[in-house]
Amino acid sequence: MTKHSRRAFLASTGAAFGGALGLQSLSAAVQANSSPYRRPKLKITDIRTAEVRVHGLQTHVRVYTDEGLFGEGESTDASHGAASIIQRAFRPFLMNQDPLNIDFLWERARTFGIFAGAQAGQYVTALSGVEIALWDLAGKALGLPIYQLMGGKMRDKVRIYCDSAHHHADDPKSKAMFEQIQKMGFSAVKIDVDDARNPNRWDRVNWTANNREMDDMVNEVKFVRESFPKEIELAVDGHGRFDMGTGKRLAKAFEPFRLMFFEEPVPAENVAAMRDIRQSTSTPICCGENRFLRHGFTDILEQRAADIIMPDIQKCGGLLESRKIADMAHAHYVPFAPHCVVSPIGTMASCHVCATVPNFLVLEWHWIANLEAWRNFVQEGEIIKDGFVELTDRPGIGVTMNEEAARKRQVPNTTWFEPTKQS
Ligand code: MG
After folding, report:
1. How far away, in angstroms, is 397 Cα from ligand 1 center?
2. Alpha carbons 283 and 243: distance in angstroms, whole number
3. The pLDDT of residue 117
4. Helical H segments across 309-364, by residue range
5. Which of 82, 110, 144 is the last residue of a domain?
6. pLDDT for 11
7. Same domain for 121 and 203?
8. Same domain as 172, residue 118
9. Cα(405) to centroid(ligand 1), Å
10. In terms of domains, do 159 and 140 share one?
11. In angstroms, what is the span from residue 237 Cα to ligand 1's centroid?
């Protein structure tokens, strides 16, 4: 019996010390006070989806229960076909299950799908959306924000970096974009250096950069670096386009700019190549948005292939899997800077994880070119203030979709959280 409940018990049985309380009343008092907490009993009754396109494709997932509560999640990037995977692969065993056993349900989905692609890609991405909806549901059922269920927060607000939509020196919109980023209070910004339209490219397929392309990329970084005050950090994304030689040369050429990180200089699947680049430069190397599950980060960490890891929480397995990946990285003294291109629902869900891990560095935000959609997507309005997202004490994720605004970005010819036809 807790101190609190013991006090309540003594108060409620005060008469017993006077000898006036009967046995039946005493039993009722003990019963009432010895179990102050009652776990909600819920059953999953339906799973529904809606597809939205803003920065890429997002699949929104809702898990419904027999008590009328539902939880909301979001998956992205590799979410093509997620609606079908959720209905055909996950729904049969999720129905009638207790939604509060989140990790159990996640593990079952994973192990059931071993021969169906449960190691990565669309399968894990679809599962990420469901898992996030289960966490939202658990928070709502228990009356607690998700960060509280994950061990409590280490910080009250989560630092966000802005992925710039315009940054070329010859783009007339760049100056206004840089001013807006500063006005919004961001302490870090990211640009893309891979440019498929660069007229100096010899080949449409091969990304070995020649000297003129290299100069263009270095000048681009120099222009952006000099457009912001020193205290605003700069990251650069290669989108995994280049070969190892180009990646090495670029990382070396970027050294004078003291970048926050150089992201995916080579594709993510060859960890040894990423490690070779990292060992060749003082520019911090970041990777992970195209890796899945803890298993996708084991080699990166053990081979010391990255200075910073950047799992995509709406893709790599969900909130708890990301938390576990962050913890693995922490044991290697590697910071956690998640990739994030989703709506305020997924972004706020990511913030719950970022708030709970010691090695959190910064979280991505990619909707500056879609500000109207961003600010109207949830009923709470703008969630980024002065470059940070402040965690709320509302249960679950803590933001609620504004259906009218969200539907403006619905993918044509798709359904909108349509109840599943019972077969
Ligand atoms: Mg990237």
Report:
1. 25
2. 17
3. 94
4. 319-331, 344-356
5. 144
6. 43
7. no
8. no
9. 27
10. no
11. 6
Please indicate, yes or no, whether residues 269 and 378 belong to a single structural domain of this protein: yes
In a domain, 26, yes or no: no
CB-CB contact of 187 with 215 (8 Å)? no
Q: What is the DSSP string of 118-183?
A: TTSHHHHHHHHHHHHHHHHHHHHHHT-BHHHHTT--S-SEEEEEEEPS---TT-TTHHHHHHHHHH
Ranges of the chain whose pLDDT falls below 70 = 1-37, 423
- Distance between CA 364 and CA 254 in Å, rounded? 21
In order of 181, 356, 391, the CA distances from 349 in angstroms are: 23, 12, 10
- pLDDT given for residue 40 in this prediction: 86
- 10 Å CB burial of residue 11 (0-12, 13-18, 19+) is exposed
Q: Is the CB of residue 78 less than 8 Å from the CB of residue 56?
A: no
Q: What is the spatial distance between Cα 171 and Cα 152, in angstroms, rounded to a whole number? A: 44
What is the model's pLDDT at position 268? 87
pLDDT of 9: 40
How many structural domains does the chain have?
2
> Looking at the structure, do residues 132 and 190 belong to the same domain, yes or no?
no
CA–centroid distance, residue 284 to ligand 1 (Å):
15
300 domain residue, yes or no: yes
Residue 36 CB contacts under 8 Å (≥ 6 apart), including other chains: 2, 4, 5, 8
179 and 140 in a common domain: no
CA 217 – ligand 1 centroid, Å: 16
Residue 68 Cα to ligand 1 middle (Å): 38
* Domain of residue 374, CATH code: 3.20.20.120
Mark whether 123 and 184 lie in a shared domain: no
Q: Long-range contacts for 78-82 (Cβ within 8 Å, ≥24 apart)?
A: 78/121, 78/122, 78/124, 78/125, 78/315, 79/51, 79/122, 79/125, 79/126, 79/129, 79/314, 79/315, 80/122, 81/122, 81/126, 82/49, 82/122, 82/125, 82/126, 82/129
DSSP per-residue string spanning 357-413: -TTB--EEE--GGGHHHHHHSBTT---EETTEEE---SSBT---B-HHHHHTTBPTT
User: Ligand 1 centre from 88 Cα, in Å?
Assistant: 30
Cα 185 to middle of ligand 1, angstroms? 22
Residue 21 covered by a domain: no
CA distance 321 to 128: 9
Of the three residues 144, 160, 179, the one that is the final residue of a domain is 144
CA of 264 to the centre of ligand 1 (A): 7
Supply the range of the domain harboring residue 217: 149-401
